[in-house]
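Listing S7. Sequence submitted for prediction.
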Amino acid sequence: MATIGRPAPWQLWTVCGALVIVAYYLLPAGGIERGLLYPALSASCTLAILAGIRRNRPVRPSVWYCVAAGIGMWSAGDFVFTYRYYALDDPSFPSYADAIYLAATPVLATGVYILIKGRVSRRDRAGLQDALIISTGLALLTWTFLMREEFGVLLVGAAPPEAARILDRLREVTPHGQSFSAGLVRWDGVEAADEVVGRADEALYHAKHNGRNRVHLVDATPTTRNTRILA
């Protein structure tokens, strides 16, 4: 008679992780519950790696300690961002969270370098270069496609409601089933350019974290013909 053995720790972690992912998408978009659940799942990956090191005793544990530290720094950055966004109502960019994200890159590169260096008994400068190339390339791809793919549009003479309608029409015709969010602010032509772009960036973050694929209008005050709208 066949018996079902006790599931392995990695199997339990996989099942729990899948349930957390399902719960994430069942929670309301833009809520603090999602904001906390996402970094919590990331932090659990760090704990799983540390448990694996203790259980399996790898030959070069420093490799996995670096990987655990890098992922842990990413989850720490997520917690910092969540705190700033929900507790302080501060979605500004860049922030302390972005510094933590970037600091994780050399930590992960160190882990890759140690892994490559283990193949040879001498100093392997080429291995270090390979590790840096891979880690830097992954960091740039993450930055480009997951973090910062934005541009600005100046709508001269358009009132905020009219500008919002224009952006909504653009969202409807975005090709290949893609979508975008937009932050909409009013500019009087006097405010410094970096300040108005910063306000537009904050409005964009509000749009993204309130469900994505939407327009967030910061100032709905009627405008004159001399006022510009930045989106």
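Caption to Listing S7: primary sequence and predicted structure tokens for the chain studied. The longest helix spans residues 61-87. Strands lie at 154-156, 182-187, 215-217, 228-230.
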